[in-house]
Amino acid sequence: MSSKHNILQSNRVLVGFSYALLIFCAVVVAYPILFLFFTSLKTTGEFFVNLFGFPKEPVWSNYSVAWSTGHLGDYFFNSVIVTVCSVILTTILSTLGGYALGRMNLPKSELIIMIFMTFNFIPGIAIYISLYKMMASVHLLTSYAALILPYTAWQIPFSMYIFKKYFETIPMDLIESARIDGCSEFTTFRKIVLPLITPAVATVVVFTFIGNWGELMWAQITTASSMNLKTLPVGLLNFKTEMGVEWGQYAAGLSLVTLPLLVIFGYFQKYFVAGLTQGAVKG
Amino acid sequence: MAINSHGSMKRSYMIKGFLFLLPASLVYLFFAVIPFFDNLILSFQDWNGFTARVFSGLENYTNAFSDANFLLAIKNSVYLGVFSSIVSVVVGVLLAWLLLYVGRRSGGIFRTILFSPSMIPAVITALIFSFVYEPEIGILNHLLQLLHLENLQAAWLTNKSTVLNSILFVSAWKQVGLTMVLCFAGMQAISTSLLESARLEGAGDWTIFRKIILPLIMSFVQLSAIFALMAGLKIYDTVLALTNGGPGKFSVVMPMWIMQNAFSFNQYGYGAAMSVIFVLIVLAGMLVTKRLIKGESYEL
Predict the structure, then answer these.
(1) Which of A17, A82, A242, B51 is 20 to 30 A from A49, alpha carbon to alpha carbon?
(2) What is the ipTM of this complex?
(3) Where are the domains of chain A?
(4) Do B181 and A121 make contact, defined as CB atoms within 8 angstroms?
């Protein structure tokens, strides 16, 4: 049987046009990122004479300078703590919730997840003003919890939705037979169901990681008063002024944050996409 | 008897089900639902953040609609939402379609590259683009010089006629890959025999696209249009890092103006009222998009 591609690719002109346009778009997308990387290896002097190309003599020291003078280490550390904790918490809470909605005969489970998803579309700023004052009144603003707990909460609707969808693909018979064998609901969940949903866990982890790692607005609000909690996005905004006009070092700082993300998530990309398409199936 | 015990078993699962759902619901309640409704109440109050909250009726709302900066912010956010969703849907669907015409291997490479901006935090993509748009050393003006198009050079982010579209480009640049990947996934689900029989009956490529592919991926188009519209309407990070709302207040967007009023000017009630208007605009945008792009589900 021939594939879709083979059927369509009989049109040579269109094939040629497709390659041309896709290559053009790929260059437009990739070049700014490559440019950042090239610039990160240049001295300020070379930057001005050789703007576009690869550096003649790569200056790797830009990276160590940016790391130390830009406080990137501190920001990085904060971002790792906040992101890792909130991703783990969201995953745990939403697997439990998703299982309940998908496989535990809860009445109105469709309506419940719809309410969560509708809330999910509300712009953050309509929550932040009150939440900021609430958290200030219970003195939560000066600890990591100020970021971890809200981040955990805001990722729940989408994650729970993905888990619910995924649990629904697991045959009820499998779960029933475990229940009849006398497994407690939690044992059934842990021993039978959980091992089957690794792909969904991967999707949720990648998804929530990207969202929380890059979150700026709430981080700005909460860290305005407590400097030592600043995460990478907040720190990078100040970074430009701290680095002055040392373009190479500035670019090195931005690359340090960008390149690992691209490498890791280039690898996990299919999970990210799988999670998004999951949402599309329902429309 | 049997039915009875089955029923009670069902009920016991239901109770356990609620227990499983409880932790997630409580966390969401405390950090999203309660603050949202408190914000709604706050929008009818006057509050500087320190003294007691005083009800002031609709005053915040009437103030909002006579606040020139807020109206400008609405205009800018809606502009960025509408156009970045149009651009990213048109370009994204086109690219997804063309992906069917390239080899599997190169298709995978194109997808990875075009999708990569979605992985990078918006602050960083915006800071990268501040290199692109910089008038003196930026690559865009240098590129135009190389192409002998000096008359097109501009101070992209400080000139009123170019600033919004420069922001729009960054937003679309980030969003196109997502739309493309989503719509491509939709196309993968279309059965090969359908395309084969259309081909055998002599249908051209454009006809196949318009009559078969496009209708079958409408639910994916709808979803990506909504994603792009939401991203554009709520855009904040990108604008903050590129222009900080400048020149003057010319490129100010809704979340930015609300943030400033609440957290810099200590007008919490006023900020809350504007954020409620913002919520209504976002919901309206979502409903209109759902109406405009009907995502019917077909048997594939």
Answers:
(1) A242
(2) 0.90
(3) 4-64, 71-243
(4) no
